[in-house]
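Researcher: I'm preparing a figure for a lab meeting and need a structural model of a single chain. I don't have an experimental structure, so a prediction will have to do for now. The sequence is pasted below. Please return the structure as C-alpha cells so I can convert it later.
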Amino acid sequence: MFFMETRKKNTPHLKSGTVPVIVTLLLSVWTGGYAGANDAPRPILMRHAAMATNVEILMLCPPDGEPEAFRQAARDAFAAIDALEARVSRFRADSFVTLANRNAAERTVAVPGDMMALLRESRRISDRTGGAFDITVGPIITLWGLYEGRDALPSPEEIAEAAALVGMEHVVLDDAENTVFFTRQGVHMDFGGVAKGLALDRAAAVLRDHGVESARLNIGTSTILALGAPPGKTGWTVDIRSPYNNDEGAFIASVEIRDEALSTSSRSERYIKIEGRKYGHIVDPRTGRPADGVLSASAIVPSGLESDALSTAFFVMGYDETRRYCETYSDARAILMVEENGAPEVFLINMNQDNGQEKE
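Model: Understood. Here is the structure written out cell by cell.
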C-alpha cells in the first residue's frame, strides 16, 4: 500500500516534469520486484509547505514497520524545517538573520549555537571556493533587482559600491562569546543559498533519530538528499533535467546517490530582463555581476547545506575552477552543462558514469 499525506493545504505547485516524475519512476522500480510479496517495502510519501516551496519526504517502511511511526517521523522532520526557517528567513522580522542584518554593524549581536555553526560553515565554503559562494552577496542581488526587478542596468560605479560591501572579511565572528559583528554599514547576510540544503540535513537527522533507514527528501525541485538506499539497490537514482527542455525524459545525466545530497543551479530557474537582455538570478560575488557561461551546475556531496552552496559556487566558477575544486576535495562530484563553441555540452567531474564526459 502507498501512503501519502499533505501536511499543509494550498502548497505551491511544483514545476511539471521535475521531482514528481522522479518519484514516480522510483516507485515503479521498488514495487516492480515485490508485487504482492509479503516482504515488500511500503513507500510513504508526505509533503509539507515551507521556504516558499514544497518539501517531500519519501520513506520506505519495512514489512514489520509501523506506518504511523514513519508518518510521525516525517511530521517531526517538517517541524525541524519550520524551526530553521523561523531563524534564517530574511522575510521574517524576528528571525536571527533579520536582527543581525539590522544591528550587527552597530554592535555585536548574540548568535544561537546552531547559527554560529552555520556561519562558520558558510565561511569555510566561501574560503574553499575563493568567494564564489558568499552569504553577504545580498547588496549585489538588491542592486540588480533580482528579487524586485529593475528597468536599467546598474552603472559600473553602482556595481563597485555594492561589491565593496560583499565578503566574509566583513563578518567578524567571536567564537568565545558567540557573537557576530559587521565591519561596515550596508553589509547584510542572506542564507537563501544554503537554507534549503540545511533544512534537508536537519530533516534527515530527525528521520535517523526515529530509526528511518531508507528515505529520499527533496525541497523544491533543485535539492535532494538520499538516506540509505532502496532494498536491493546501491543508491537512489536521480535524473537531472536539461535547463533547455522541460519535457519528460529530457535529462542531461542520471546519477546514483546514497547518504549524499544533490543540488542543481540552473540559468533557467529565474531571471530578469533589462534593456531586452536576460540576466540570471545567480551573481558572482567577486565581480558584482550575474554569472554567465554555465547553463546548469549540480553538486553532489555528503551534506545538503554544502550541496546547496556548491551548486551555486560551481555555477559561478565554471568548468576549470570546479574541476580544480573537485580534485582538491575528493568527496565532491559535479555535473556541468556549459556553452562550448556556441553549443551546450555536459561534463562530469569525479564521477564514473557512462553519460557525459570529462573535459580535456
